[in-house]
Amino acid sequence: MQPIRTLLVDDEYLALQLLASYAAQVPGLEIVGKARLPLQALEIIREQTVDLLFLDIQMPVLNGSQLVKLLPQPAPLVVFTTAYSDYAIEALTSYRDWE
């Protein structure tokens, strides 16, 4: 079975490290990169194969919902990560608009 190539995106250093720690414990996930800036994540996705994207919603300049709309097709699967339940509806709406 091929590993699931995973990119982690969060502007907060500690949150990104915690996410990486959790992801490293999941068999079959291969972390291909970590990004603290959305545009950095977009560059990584354009340069290499990414199957799964763990993406924070609340980030400066470009938020996770906006980044999803810029993903090249076929796009990786996206798991939105956030500490704020208020963003759940926004994430769902962004994903539906993107499909």
Descriptive account of the structure:
With 99 residues, the protein is of the alpha/beta class. Helix content is 40%, strand content 23%. A four-stranded parallel sheet has the order 2-1-3-4, sandwiched between helices. The protein starts with a strand and ends with a helix. The model has no long low-confidence stretch (mean pLDDT 88).
How would you concisely characterize the structure shown here?
With 99 residues, this protein is of the alpha/beta class. The chain is built from four helices and four strands.
How would the blueprint of this fold be written?
Blueprint: E1 4-9, H1 13-24, E2 29-35, H2 38-47, E3 52-56, H3 64-70, E4 77-81, H4 88-98
Parallel strand pairs: 1-2, 1-3, 3-4
